[in-house]
Structure formats: C-alpha cells, structure tokens
C-alpha cells in the first residue's frame, strides 16, 4: 500500500513544475491518486479490512480538497491533471 521509490520518482517526473518540486498541488494529487488506486486493489482482495477503508476515505477527501483548490486557483492545470489521471 506504500508507493515504492521508483513509482514515486516516475510520478514526480511527470507532474513536477520545476526541479526539486515535491509539494505542488499537481504532484500531491498524482501521488494521492496512486495511493488510492493501490488501496482500492487491496480492498478488493480484503473486503473486511475496515482500517484501510477508513484510510482510503481520508485520502479521497484530501484529494478532493486539493482538486477543489486547484480548480479555483488554476483551471487549466486542473483540466490537465484530471485528464492525465483519468479523474472525473
């Protein structure tokens, strides 16, 4: 359920604004989306894992708030991120 280093570097390379960028909204949304996808796969196998389900709901809420902020601040980047991550 934790992202491995190679996958995280790949996501950072795709969504970063500049070198050393690890905290921009686009990067955070992309990393959260990857974690959400891995948790969904985990929960398909382990239906009674309620603790992971709660963690998934928290991650989805956090991603929703970040996307809402990104939509208000920069709608072009919001559209680009949502299309590249297949959200919406």
Quick rundown:
The chain is mainly α and 88 residues long. The chain contains four helices and no strands. It is globular, with a radius of gyration of 14 Å.
Word description of this protein:
By secondary structure, this protein is mostly helical. Helix content is 75%, strand content 0%. The protein is built from four helices and no strands. Helix 1 packs across helix 2, helix 2 packs antiparallel against helix 3 and helix 3 runs antiparallel to helix 4. The longest helix has 24 residues. The radius of gyration is 14 Å and the shape is globular. The protein starts with a helix and ends with a helix.
Percent of residues in β-strands: under 5%
**Quaternary assembly:** single chain
Q: Mean of the pLDDT scores?
A: 95
- Topology, number of strands: 0
String of helices and strands: HHHH
Question: What does the largest sheet look like?
Answer: none
Give the overall form. globular
Structural class: mainly alpha
- Helix-residue proportion: over 70%
Task: Provide a count of the helices.
Answer: 4
How large is the radius of gyration?
A: 14 Å
């Amino acid at each position: 359920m934790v992202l491995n280093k190679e996958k995280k570097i790949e996501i950072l390379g795709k969504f970063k604004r500049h070198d050393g960028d690890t905290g921009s909204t686009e990067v955070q949304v992309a990393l959260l989306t990857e974690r959400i996808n891995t948790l969904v796969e985990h929960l398909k196998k382990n239906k009674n894992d309620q603790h992971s389900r709660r963690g998934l709901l928290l991650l989805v809420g956090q991603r929703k708030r970040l996307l809402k902020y990104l939509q208000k601040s920069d709608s072009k980047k919001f559209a680009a991120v949502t299309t590249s991550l297949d959200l919406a």
